[in-house]
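Researcher: Please translate sequence to structure tokens.
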Amino acid sequence: MLRDRVAASDPGLLRLAAGLRTVGAIALTLAVLGVLGMSVPHLVAGAIAAMVATFAIREKQRAPQAVTLALGLPVALVSMSLGALLSSRVLAGDLFFVALIFCAVYGRRFGDRGTALGLIGFQIYFVSLFVGASVSGLPELYGVLGVAFLCSATARFLLVPETPAGLLERLREAFRVRLAQLVSAQLALLDAGPEEIDGALKDVREGTARLHETALMIQGRLEEGTSDAGAARLVQRRVADAEIAAERLGLLLLTARSSERADTLTLHLPGAPAPRPGRMPGRDEAMNRVRRDLEALRLLVLRPVAARSGTALSQVRNRLLGYREEENLPPAPPAVQDVFRGIGEAARAVLGLRIALDGPQDESDDSPATARSREELDAEDAVIESGEEDGGTQEELTGLRRPTTRAAVQVAVGSALAIVGGEFLSSQRWYWAVLTCWIVFINTASTGEILVKGYRRLLGTVLGVLAGIVLAGAVGQHTWTAFALVLVLVFAMFYTAPLSYTLMSFFVTAALGLLYTLLHTYSLSVLVLRVEETALGAACGVIAAAFVLPVRTDRRTNDLLVTVLERLDEVTEAAVDQLSGGSPEELLDRARDLDQALADLRAATQPLTHPITPLRARRDTARYVVALLETCAYHARSLAATAELLPTHPSIAADPRLRRAGRRIGENIAAIAAHVADERSTARVETGPSIASLLESEVPGTPRFGRVTDRVLRHVQRLDETLVGLARPLDVPVATPGR
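Model: Translation complete:
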């Protein structure tokens, strides 16, 4: 269905809503100003102001959004006034602009509201320069700004409203659809031939990553979108269960296709070849049954079981949940039986997700296996509802060590350079260089990130100039046709912004070409100047980042790598401790902190892994390390999810012997982190007996593994092995047994 595809491609419809809200605000502003008979420069100023007032607001709750929007209007009025007053005083105007930029960036330390007000102040000052605001024209411009902010509020709260609960509901729907798409990709992997296996495995990897992305988005909206903390924890738990079960099912399918066990979907390098043995053992009957059950699982994800008894879907659900009982497994090779177990666990996760999101389900047609699954879920729900969240404190950096202060100083210096250089290029449009310098610093933290962002903006600008030439020639002097095209380009800009910064820059530049046409200042030389100013602004940003309080990409990635390792240690230690009989803790929050730290590291390594980087060996190492960390994170998430089942799951019980295995893992993580933080560290990664041998009991006659499941042992073992593998590309010494 088209609706499902849209929901999956744009989780929560965030991009669609942002585009429609911004376009609605601009269109309403243009309509009101057009009825009032305003001139084209006022229409342009109103359109840009409405766009800024709409996209600057970041808060999630409606009341804080309204307060920020209300505070933004006086900030805009002051900024416009100062822009008009200082337009004839070049030196004073330049000094004020640099000071304004510093304050706007520094304001980020005060959260979303500080960020929004700083953005509004900067952008409205830019508007005053763009339309040539004068003191005599201020009264009309005040009215334009008032109309723009009022129309922005109308679009936000009436035309395209958004509530935290509604957004969370759309994100949940996107999670379901992406889960179904992942099952479809796994089904394609099952049927893929030798020539199709690489593409099929790539689809499974991408589907798993997209599902994980949606789970993180849900996590970020739970606090505002649910009625109480208990409901938030319940949804968080069920989403995590479904995510882990789906990822594990993909690994089991991959293992069943291969003669070797698959421990991660990343295979350590994005371009690594897939396992080649293309025929599953026992392919005939077992293959058909696995295929049928995967199709049934996809239906369970997308469609709720009907309330009336005896439905085919309820019978399918009962059959899949029955695979959780050993006696119900079909005759097949061990690897294929693992797939059936994985399907059963995935069906249980889907059932839990349905109950958490949609409320109580019909139980009239339950089989004994389904009833047992419900009992387990009810017991887990009771434990979750009685739990309390732990609060944490975070050390705050001060002075120039604080990222916002450092960024503010860097942007101020870069902007000063851009003003001086821009004046040499053009005394009328020097502000384009300043705008580019400002933008390349947004959401970046290292010199490499700024370099990559500047390159992407320059590329998008060059392509946008070419498009602007074509569009300006086609539109001519048809004012409202040009504004209609501007609206289309603005929507495209906001819809593509999270996907590609180059595309966003392309649409911005193309729209500006039309605005120049409306202001009767369009010419080929103006668009060429736009490219030159963009290149200058990006260069000034890179120079400032490289020489003013620099944060080298290596240093930032090392800091983030240490953070990832610390989060990994926290999750693993807590999970192993709980599986060993320790006191229960809130593990899923810690697992999500690990996921977020890993996402930050992945973003920070983009300059190292970008296709244009000349350091190919370094690029491959960065990809390899991130892939290994993704493997560690998967096993740590799985351990955390299993540990949280401990109080209620009949087949999982604490085993104190696990502490010995956990101790070695913790020491190895600490050794790697110490070496990353200080290359002179003498810490070494220890290898030795397998995890299973560490659990050998010293008491004769004691069962080898007690009641700890094989799955727990596998995760701990693979985590231990992956950490040893991680030590090698990071040049951490590995101690061999007996030495």
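Researcher: Any highlights?
Model: Confidence is low (pLDDT under 50) at residues 267-273, 277-282, 388-395, 698-708.
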